[in-house]
Design brief:
Elements (H helix, E strand, L loop, with lengths): L13 H4 L6 E12 L3 E4 L5 E11 L3 E8 H4 L11 E12 L2 E14 L4 H11 L8 E2 L15 E2 L2 H9 L6 E12 L2 E2 L2 E2 L3 E4 L21 E2 L4 E2 L3 E4 L1 E6 L4 E6 L1 H8 L3 H13 L4 H10 L8 E12 L2 E13 L2 H18 L1
Parallel strand pairs: 4-6, 4-7, 8-9, 17-19
Antiparallel strand pairs: 1-3, 1-5, 2-3, 3-4, 5-6, 9-16, 9-18, 10-11, 12-15, 13-14, 16-17, 18-19
Helix pairs in contact: 6-7
Length: 346
Amino acid sequence: DGAVEVHKFNFVDLRRVQSRPLPTTIDLFGVIVKSDPVFSFTSKEGKPLVKREITVADDTAASMDITLWGDRAQQDDAKFNGSPIVALKGVSVKEWNGGLSGSLMQSGCVDFEPQGDVAERVRRWWACGVSLQSLSALSVSRSGGTGGSRKACKATIKEMREQADAIPDDPKLLRVTARLASVQTTKQGEPHSLTYLACTLPREGTNGLVCNRRVDESGHCESCGRYGNPAARINVRCRFVDFGENAWLTTFSEAASSILRMTPDELRDLERQALGNGPDGWSGLEERVQQTYYSSTPLQLTCRVKADTFLGVRRGNAACIEARPICLREHGGTLLEEIMQMVPAC
């Protein structure tokens, strides 16, 4: 009987996953916004394994990386292309390095292009032209940075600088609300590249984690000693400001892409065009970057403060590893709570 459901789902919004005790097992419904090729490797026990990494987003404007295994991972690539709607039953969610990652259990299932009220709601949301940079990434990014901020403590820029000056023994994650003031596009009067090429070959013994080291234009990686298909990455110095302070922070690929509202490939093409147009070409790139200054929505930054050693001197260092527009409703509620805490003291 076609009216009998093949699978019974109990969907959980991605935003609600953050408040659940971990590990947990849930059913998810959303859009596949990114899919990696199938990857084969051998486990530590010598067992051959096959997996595929996908990124699923739902209409709470959040996304999470999910690993598919075996036959589910080896389905035709065409099924994963074109941002299909998908229902996932039996996703095991765990915390790793401050972010969340999902893995489809053996007893779970994948249902492509399902029908129903939830499907229509998600389709309408995605059809509105959602920007990937506007999604809140709950997972650890595949380039090595953290995509979640579950363990991040709220701080101002001044408090972040004070913690960096204190040179912490262990890295700390801080959640800072600020605006973009400027991006470094020149160094000593010369154009300063905002992108570089990174190695995408898997490192040995890391279950598929890519090398991600800088490579030359030919694609040769000195770390791996191999040639591959490199990928563009963004690495910029950004000055952020809040109500009381400002700070220059090194800002990595995913965070920088969200701030500049450009993908690494788009920015790298823009750089090439600028350099090819003579002395006036770079000013055109700077004008494009400046369009993002003091945007209408403040940013929620996840900053990592840790100790570094430079020329034998130990010092504190702060970097931006995630950035996304704040949710005005949530931020306004937080500000109201702070005001109500101040009222009795006054």
